[in-house]
Amino acid sequence: MPALGEDVIEATVSRWLKQVGDRIAAGEPLVEISTGKVAFEVPADTSGHLREIRIPAGTTVPAGSVIALIEPSVAVPS
């Protein structure tokens, strides 16, 4: 869960846009979250495969919480 500003201390995971095992590119929308005022998509911060979703949709968590794990892509030497 990204830092959301000084006055926002928690947010709710509204829905996951990717599922475990999906390939994700850095910057691609990963999850939709909502605060009391706004809903928005959060992009992946790295490329790889979504390894684990730690926080299910409908759950409210503190800003800065780990909500998922992305296994980085490993370049294959040629």
From TrEMBL:
InterPro entries: 2-oxoA_DH_lipoyl-BS (IPR003016), 2-oxoacid_dehydrogenase (IPR050537), Biotin_lipoyl (IPR000089), Single_hybrid_motif (IPR011053). The keyword Transferase does not apply. It comes from Actinoplanes regularis. Residues 1-71 form the Lipoyl-binding domain. One of its GO terms (biological process) is tricarboxylic acid cycle. It comes from the Bacteria. Transmembrane segments: none annotated. Keywords: Lipoyl. This is Biotin-requiring enzyme. GO terms for molecular function: dihydrolipoyllysine-residue succinyltransferase activity. One of its GO terms (cellular component) is cytosol. The lineage of its organism: Bacteria, Bacillati, Actinomycetota, Actinomycetes, Micromonosporales.
